[in-house]
Amino acid sequence: MSLDRRCVLMPTLSSADLALPAGAWRAALLSSTARRIFAVLTATALSIGLAHAQDRRKDQDAAPPGDAALLKKLEQMEQRLRVLESQLKQRDARAIEAAHGQASPSTNPPANAKPAKDRNDAEEPTQPKQPKEQKGLVGAIKPDWATPAARDLTGKTAPVNPPNSIIGLTDSPVTGMSIGAYGEMKFGLQQNPAAGGQWQNGFDAHRLVLLPTYLITPNIIFNAEIEFEHGGSGFDPDDKLHGTAEIEQIWIDFKIMDQFNWRAPGIDLIPIGYINEHHEPTAFYSVQRPELYNGLIPSTWKAPATSVYGRLAEGVYYTIQASSSLEDFGGDFATRTDAKTVPTGGYAAGIDGANALGFALPVRGDFQQLSNDIAVAGQLSYSPPVLPGFNGSVSAYYTPNTTPRGAYADSGAPLGRSSLTMFDAEFRYRVPNTGFEARGEYVFVSLGNPANLRANNDSDPTNNVGKTMYGYSGELAYHLPLGNILSSDWEVVPFYRYTFQSAQTGGFAGTDLNMPTGAGQTQFHNVGVAVFPSPQIVLKATWQKVINRDPAGANSDSVLGGVGFFF
Amino acid sequence: MTTSWVRLTLPAAVVASVSPSYAVQYLTIDAAQKLAFPSANRFMENGGLTWKAQAGDRLLGLFVVDHVIGKHLYIDYAVALDPTGRVMRVEILQYRESYGGEVREPGWLAQFVGKSSSSPLKVGSDIRNISGATLSSLHVAEGVKRILATYGSRTR
Q1: How many Cα atoms sit within 13 Å of A74 on the Cβ side?
Q2: What are the structural domain ranges in chain B?
Q3: Residue that is last in its domain, among A53, A74, A104
Q4: What is the pLDDT of residues A545-560, one digit of tens each?
Q5: Which of A295, A314, B42, B60 could form a disulfide with B53 if both were Cys (CB 3.0 to 4.6 A apart)?
Q6: Does the pLDDT at position A567 exceed 60?
Q7: Which chain A residues touch B126 with a CB distance below 8 Å?
Q8: Burial of residue A286, with CB atoms counted within 10 A of its CB: 0-12 exposed, 13-18 middle, 19 or more buried
Q9: Based on the structure, what is the number of domains in chain A?
């Protein structure tokens, strides 16, 4: 067993030992890597001593001249060897403990070192340490630095695998790989506008997302998000599933330097606003995602894309991205023709006055895109050093054309090109040393040629769009610590958010009759509370009031609860 | 010819010279030691990944290297303590992930200067959160707190 090998201990080095050849030491200790470290250290000490004895005058390196300094260096080597010895003893002892089933259970990765720290505290609370190196220390307070840490830190580069890096349950079998997850469940009462505003109970296992990350090399990182929505998808009637299993993100990052990194072509998030990229349930306080990210910014807005990004100065980060364009086709995927055009006999719009851009996401699979158009997006995010706690960003998106191949009006006339420009500015301000937080956002969409949009030519007079769409929101929240419950620090965040959104403005052009109902202008009031048992878990409750200009009323109020997690 | 070449590359050269460029390894341990203790002439290994910084026989402080998790991958960082056990400096040595690198901002790391083992070091109260880097900022703050608890001075 390992106990036998430990009997070979290093004798104390002294100048009399210098005459022995280095090889004799080396041979006895090559049974393990740690032993090899011992061997290298002693061989180095001996070779330095030998070389120095021969070439005293020629040595211009870091080793100071003189035998006294040489002895001091040997003493340091001795001290280092003793420390390594004690670490090995501790590691062997721990291994024996584990073998006998007495290993201490490891909890979350950040808490791993706490047991070791407590052990350290318990063993030597008030022992005054007087190691020979602390001669120069002045004053009554002596930090106990002489006690080596009980934690096992090995070598200069930390091991690449955090413990429990597979969804927090078990260690990764592959060095450099970890799998995280996030998800959210929603439940409660909602008014159903399709049922005249009737209040109905409901539940939605909205999403479960797996996040595999792999450090291919220290500078090349693989990242993906695999998402299951609304309980997943199936085709047997008894499964009662109509959700999705999809690839939300998949990309490889080349980390080149601070100012310039490249994300190779893959599926990536469009860098507009804050919530599109930071959409985990712990990033926002309402049960549903902020309303501006339902239609104006069609979160989760992902597309085939490649980008470059980096840090320009202190607190300033940028991203520039090229992606597959939004498409003005919102119909069933299966109706795309083999010629990659819209189907004949009528089709649904991707951009309209009821859903804004919610149905305009580009296709990600099987080369089924309906146009050759490539969009560009850019984002600058800023955390000014003069205003700590403030984070903001401005972003823009431009596509030269959203009209798919073969697009036509119901009158038979073909629909031509129409560009789309989007602009977003948002901020989040957490006032330092208080619990106050404020968030604000403004989104603006400009449609190049509304006459060529399908919604204005599909015989439906109520879903038309104008030249622009826009929206803004403001949110106030307060962070209140609840203290330590169930071994973690809880926090409660009450909040209020107001959102206004207009998807139908002036500037309509097209073959349709234009009779918007007023449903295109909507106000949302959200009041609720988010409880964080830890930063990785959130329990939410939100009451939402929806008001629009539809004479029939919005009929979309809701009282919802939610459970979310992210690790 | 020469002037147009200069004109094309000058903006890039300015950007590159204004902020020094790093790969994933932002600072080596040696470089971080010298940044934290510029007047030290000797760093004595003290067990684990800790070094005592000394100028001659005078103890300047303790230099500790540790790692914490960001979201999924490790962050290597270093903490320099003065002889009374207070934080002098925190440096990020290696940040591997694609998101959350804002913990490297000097303005955020400067918050740890002066903290002792009796400081709360709680993100959201005495340490600012970084939205978009919530887990990284939380774990780095926890790591510094752990180092202060292990190596910081204890008042009697």
Answers
A1: 22
A2: 22-151
A3: A104
A4: 999 988 888 889 999 9
A5: B60
A6: yes
A7: 433
A8: buried
A9: 2
What rounded mean pLDDT belongs to chain A? Answer: 80
Strand segments (E) across A333-412: 374-382, 390-399
Express each pLDDT in A27-58 by its tens digit.
Answer: 444 456 656 666 566 666 565 555 555 555 45
Distance of alpha carbon B4 from alpha carbon B13, whole angstroms: 14
Between CA A87 and CA A116 the distance in angstroms is 13
Report how far residue A22's alpha carbon sits from residue A42's, in angstroms, rounded to the nearest whole number. Answer: 8
Which residues of chain A are within 8 Å of residue B48 when distances are taken between CB atoms? 87, 148-149, 151, 153
For this complex, say whether ipTM is above 0.85. Answer: no
Instruction: Name every chain B residue with its beta carbon within 8 A of the beta carbon of A145.
Output: 46, 50, 52, 62, 151
Question: Computed from CA positions of residues A535, A536, A541, A542, in that sequence, does the dihedral angle turn out positive or negative?
Answer: positive
Tell me whether residue A212 is in a domain: no
Minimal-distance CA residue of chain B relative to A142? B153
Asked if the C-beta of B116 comes within 8 angstroms of chain A's C-beta atoms, the answer is no
Is residue A78 in some structural domain? yes
What count of residues does chain B have? 156
Please check whether residue A179 lies inside any domain of the structure.
no
Q: Is residue A472 part of a domain?
A: yes
Tokens representing residue B37 in the block: 């203790």
Phi then psi for B32, rounded to 5 degrees?
Answer: -65, -35
Q: Which two tokens stand for residue A394?
A: 């401005």
pLDDT at A411 over 50: yes
Residue B20 Cα, gap to closest chain A Cα (Å): 8
Give B100 to chain A, closest Cα distance, Å.
11
Model confidence over A498-509: pLDDT tens digits? 999 999 998 888
Using an 8 Å CB-CB cutoff, list chain A residues near B18. Answer: 313
Q: How far, CA to CA in Å, does A195 sit from each of A255, A407, A460, A523?
A: 52, 33, 21, 21
Give the C-alpha separation, A254 to A218, whole Å. 10
Residue of chain B nearest A72, judged by CA positions: B44
Boundary-marking domain end, from A104, A123, A157: A104
Decide if B84 touches A, using CB distance below 8 A.
yes
Give CA–CA dist A324/A224, Å, rounded. Answer: 18
Q: Which two tokens stand for residue A215?
A: 């450090």
Within 10 angstroms of residue A13's Cβ, the number of other Cβ atoms is 20
Nearest chain B residue (CA) to A88:
B48
Contact B63, B36 (CB under 8 A): yes
Confidence label for A526 from pLDDT (cuts 50, 70 and 90): very high
Neighbours of A424 (CB within 10 A): 24
Look at residue B19 and tell me whether its pLDDT is greater than 50: no
Contact between B47 and A83 using a beta-carbon 8 Å cutoff: yes
pLDDT (tens digit, 9 = 90+) per residue, A144-165? 444 333 333 333 344 455 566 6
pLDDT at A1 over 70: no
* Residues B113, A287: Cα–Cα separation, whole Å: 38
Residue A70: give the domain boundaries: 2-104
B71 to chain A: which residues are within 8 Å by CB? 180, 213
Q: Looking at residue A44, what is its pLDDT?
A: 60
Cis ω for the linkage preceding A300 (within 30 of 0) = yes
Q: Inform me whether the C-beta atom of residue B81 falls under 8 Å from chain A C-beta atoms.
A: yes
- Selected for mutation to probe chain B from A135, A177, A258, A317 (highest B CB count within 10 Å) is A258
Which residues in chain B have Cβ-Cβ distances shorter than 8 Å to A283? 131, 134
Give the count of Cβ contacts less than 8 A between chain A and B.
Answer: 188
Question: Chain A residue closest to B44 (CA)?
Answer: A76
Q: How many CA atoms lie within 13 A of A512 on its CB side?
A: 25
User: A146 to chain B: nearest residue by CA?
Assistant: B46
Q: In this complex, do B73 and A158 lie within 8 Å of one another by their Cβ atoms?
A: no
Chain B CB contacts of A137 under 8 Å are: 59, 83
What are residue A268's phi and psi, to 5 degrees?
Answer: -140, 165
